[in-house]
Amino acid sequence: STQSTWGAELEGQNIKILMPPPHNEMHHKYIQTYESGSRPKLMMASRVRMPCIHKDGHIFPMELAIVEIELESGRGYTALVRDATGMAALEQERVVSEARERAEKSSIKKMIAECADGKITIDHEGIMVAVNEQACELVGYTRAELLGMNVGMLAPSPHRENHTLYLRNYLSGGRPKLMLGSVVRMPCVHKDGHVFLIEIKVVPVDLDQGGQGFLGMVRESRGLDKTEIERPASSIRFAVQQSLEDSVLHSSAEGKITITSAGIITDINNIACELLGYTDAELMGQSVNVLMPSPHREHHDEYIRNYEQGGRAKVIGNIMKMPCVKKDGTVFTLEIAVVALKRDGQQYYTSLLRDPCTLR
Known about the structure:
The chain is built from 10 helices and 13 strands. It has helices spanning 2-6, 23-35, 85-114, 133-139, 143-146, 159-171, 226-249, 270-276, 280-283, 296-308, and strands spanning 47-53, 59-71, 74-83, 118-122, 128-131, 183-189, 195-206, 212-220, 255-260, 265-268, 319-325, 331-343, 346-354.
């Protein structure tokens, strides 16, 4: 209130006592300008921020909105006011943050422009949208063969299968995984099939077509023997697996089902139960096949065996839309992402589920 902010001695005083120079000297002219029909300095009914003098003499920012009213004695004005000290601090923080972001983007653009290495740009789903000649020469593909493909094709397992999930976890607020902003060594698969080590630095970029993407600056890491190649690949694999497990195990926004190699459900959360119409007691210990229509129901065990014997997984590491059967027999579509996890030496598979209709 005005009493708690300025004291109780205001009625009958000219409002300009609350204003520092030059506003206190000019306030009467502001009113005359407005009442003569000219555009007001302070737009009526708009929120503006102005300096204000407290009774103790300190000046602080005040946010106010002015409206014209009719008094018995004629025209008058009411100002809705509030202390903007905290808002001013937030505004200053925002300005500093935006300046820092502009500086970082400028630095990144300069670094990209000066970089003579291979460059691969992907969108938020990992699809390659730009590739330069140096990158093509490094991996043995032509630009036409790479554009539109998932960048995971250039990585050996388990990175190939899980790359989409890495991106999804990062974009949903997860830890920036392995390399964002740092130079790291990663295994890469050449078109002819041989695996070699690259040095890569990944930075976030704004795509020309809109949205966030990532640019990787890559070059071959030379002068390393086989042992040196395998060591970083192994440590990266471990770090990725730990981060991925952490992401999956602590996901609370999506349905989640965990099964064994035999397809037996060992864990299911409430969101998945609601999506499927079952209670957790009805599904625990059951085969996950009961949730699938034909022909997936009959072939699911075969899918798992094929993957565990070294076959290529179609679902693991990717986000796909799959048909699913509710308890009442209704067949509907779920968006599903499956990740392979190891616990105590045993293989498990955890699926994150969500209804794509809720994303529209």
